Amino acid sequence: MTDAAWESLSNQAVAAAGLLYFLALLAHLVEWASLRKVPVAAGAVARDSVDIPGGVAVATGPEDAAVEGRVRRTALFGRLGYLITWMAVVVHLVALVARGMAADPNRVPWGNMYEFTLAGTFVVAALYVVLYRKLRLAWMAPIVLAFVLSVLMVAVIWLYSPVAPLTEALSSYWLVIHVVSAIVATGAFTLGGITSALYLVKARSLAKKGPQQAGYVARLPQPEALDRVSYRLHAFGFPVWTFAVLITGPIWAHQAWSSYWNWDPKEVWAFITWVVYAAYLHARTTAGWKGRNAAILALVGMATLWFNFIGINYFSSTSQHSYAGGAAQIEVVPQR
Fold first, then answer.
1. Are 192 and 254 in contact (CB under 8 A)?
2. By three-state DSSP, how is residue 327 classified?
3. Burial group, residue 292, by CB count within 10 angstroms (0-12, 13-18, 19+)
4. Tens digit of pLDDT for each residue in 283-323?
5. CA angle, 195 then 196 then 198, to 5°
6. Angle at which helices 62-101 and 3-35 pack, to 10 degrees?
7. How far is the first Cα of the chain from the last one, in angstroms, to the nearest whole number?
8. Which GO terms describe its molecular function (predicted)?
9. Residue 72 vs residues 197, 219, 310, 334: alpha-carbon distances, Å
């Protein structure tokens, strides 16, 4: 295949992945709309609890049997949405690989903001489908899919740029290690931030309405479970971010600029993000700081993370990690 054919395949795969994410979102929205007709039984867990968010009462009479039948029919939409999401993730991966193959010479697919956004949204979706059953993340489906779909639309509409070769300073295997670890950590922190935001919503709803909740919030796990899932996601992402920011990043910077640390705005904000998440995990493990305060701190961390990802590229004129508004390659200016 020619480079132009690979680039065309990548663009088509991005469009196909977006369509599949949209269909998966529709399936989950139908699922959640149908669940509004099913009563929530506190403390009861359905046999299909992985596929059905929230608990439903076990059938003991004709009315309960009808409810259970409705739940099982609704579960089909949940399984369908999860299957389509898996398909979207596979097509998304094809888009990334084709993007790298379109360059001459072939390279890693993160030479600009468009490509980095493709990679970041892929990791968020991939982590979600991989952890779906382990952490029982059925309740997260609409939020994750809406987030991935929205960011992909932004990337295609405003950030797209043609394939181009990397500059010499970026042609380093340390860049590959650095960016892969940063993207993985970003995906984990994003899922953890979403969970923390839902924790605050659930806790506020319980404080106002007690057990008389309805709709999406009623199907969310209890705040304690959300808090636990958020902690596990952040505990996974933090050492990966540490590896990216404090180990591989400085090594690559030394290769590119002959200095391990240049006080570049992106480096500074990456370190600020590390400090916030370090404070989050330290407070939880030493001071038992859980619940609302921990959730707020996690959201502060996610805000610094995404400002570092987007804000620095658009608002800083001195950063050596410049994506030029997403339309060009990273500009690396060696310093001697």
1. no
2. coil
3. middle
4. 988 877 888 899 999 999 999 998 888 777 776 555 555 54
5. 65
6. 170
7. 41
8. heme binding
9. 29, 16, 42, 61
Distance CA 135, CA 138 (A): 9
Q: Which pLDDT value is given to residue 71? A: 74
What DSSP line would sit under 233-287, residue for residue?
HHHHHHHHHHHIIIIIHHHHHHHHHS-S----HHHHHHHHHHHHHHHHHHHHHHS
Low-confidence ranges of the chain (pLDDT < 50): 42-49, 56-61, 323-336
User: Can you tell me the distance from the alpha carbon of 21 to that of 18, in angstroms, rounded to the nearest whole number?
Assistant: 5
pLDDT computed for residue 59 by the predictor: 45
Q: Round the CA-based radius of gyration of the chain to a whole number and report it.
A: 22
Give DSSP secondary structure letters for 73-92: HHHHHHHHHHHHHHHHHHHH
- Class of residue 156 by CB neighbours under 10 A (exposed 0-12, middle 13-18, buried 19+): middle
pLDDT of residue 57: 43
Domain boundaries, given as residue ranges, for the chain = 1-164, 166-336
Neighbouring-strand partners of residue 331? 322
Cα torsion angle, 96, 100, 101, 107, sign: negative
The helix (H) or strand (E) run that includes residue 313 is helix 312-315
154: CB partners within 8 A, 6+ apart: 117
Whole-angstrom distance, CA of residue 74 vs CA of residue 233: 28
